[in-house]
Amino acid sequence: MSKDSRIEGTPFILPRRKILQGAGGLAGILASGQAPVFAQAKSQKMIVAHMNPLPESGSVSMDWFAKELSARSNGEIAAEFQGATLLTKEIEVMNAVKSGNIAMGSPAGAAASLFPEMGAFIVSYLISNYNQAYSILNGKVGDQLDKIFQEKYGVKVIYFYDYGFRHFWLNKRPIEQPKDLRGIKVRVQPSKVFADCVNGLGGVAVPLAWSEVITAAQQGVIDGADLPVVNMVPLKAYEVSKYFSMTYHNYGATLVAMNLGMWNALRPEQQKMILDTGREAQGVVRKITEEVDNLAAAKRILEPLGMKVNAPDLGPFKALAQQKIWPQYQKQYGALWDDIVASR
Asked: What 8-state DSSP symbol labels residue 160?
């Protein structure tokens, strides 16, 4: 009797490893209609949720991540990416992860609201370039944050990623120097560190959830907001703004996290596979972000859509941030602040 005929004849008594190896793995069993009940029982479904749909940059990496998890696990994990489906707000996504209703998700741009420790990365001009940020988040500091998040929030960090450096998009005027922000109503995420950034640089911070931003801009409730270059088109901000000023005023660090109970229930080799795949997904989103975060790329992307792009001298902005914003956060973040400064 051949190996294939034995699998067809007695699928429920063979060792699980043999079944996965035969008939092309679990995918082969499902494709041939064999043992669907067994296959479903042994395949662990994992939802990877995000508030934004494709082709937003974080969504691209999470969709890639979910597909790779399913493929690399040989059918043991059935990962599925859901972007802007049932969960469309950052807090909804992370509450679902913490409660175990879904396996993994991202706080997107609200990382500092849901994980206050992440606010240190957002302080204006504390992070000066991508290499600095990557060395911190992929090193000792990232490991420490992972431990803190497990203990305080019940989630395991799978990978850190970012939305790049934020720049102002406005419908009134371009920003050439800090005084151009005076009286300008800028939407910020509902976190104190974002509001302090805009207020400290001279603007008027208006905290709003992203779901309200486009309507608020259309109605004149805000004069604009800030986004990295990479998300201006996917989030359609160009439809309600005229000017894009590349101020690099904060770094949008965030993460993908997994329910800690689900993580602890995995075998060590499964955990390693998820972390290794997550590190590759991190590289996917970082490449997308970095490639467009420069003046030439921003002009190429946004000016055909009717926007005007400028790159002001950052010196006055950095000096103002160090004077008005840094002092209150240096004490708050303590050792984490010192680690970030040392990396500069």
From this structure: E
Do 336 and 115 contact (CB within 8 A), yes or no?
Answer: no
pLDDT single digits (tens) 119-164: 999 999 999 999 999 999 999 999 999 999 999 999 999 999 999 9
Q: What is the H or E stretch that residue 51 is in?
A: none
Q: Are the C-beta atoms of 176 and 228 separated by less than 8 Å?
A: no
Dist CA 62 CA 234 (whole Å): 15
Query: What φ, ψ does residue 39 adopt, rounded to 5°?
Result: -60, -45
Supply the pTM of this predicted model. 0.82
9-25 pLDDT per residue, tens: 323 233 333 333 333 44
Which class does domain 3-161+254-291 fall in?
alpha beta
Query: Strand runs (DSSP E) across the chain, as ranges?
Result: 44-50, 77-83, 104-105, 155-165, 167-170, 185-188, 204-207, 224-227, 243-245, 251-259, 308-310
According to the CATH classification, is domain 167-251+294-343 in 3.40.190.170?
A: yes
For the sheet with 104-105, list strands across it: 77-83, 44-50, 104-105, 251-259, 155-165
What's the one-letter identity of residue 223?
D
Fold match between 3-161+254-291 and 167-251+294-343? yes
The DSSP symbol for 211 reads: G
Domain-by-domain residue ranges, the chain? 3-161+254-291, 167-251+294-343
Using the 8-state DSSP alphabet, how is residue 120 labeled?
A: G
DSSP state of 53: -
Yes or no: say if 94 and 114 are a contact pair by the CB < 8 Å rule: yes
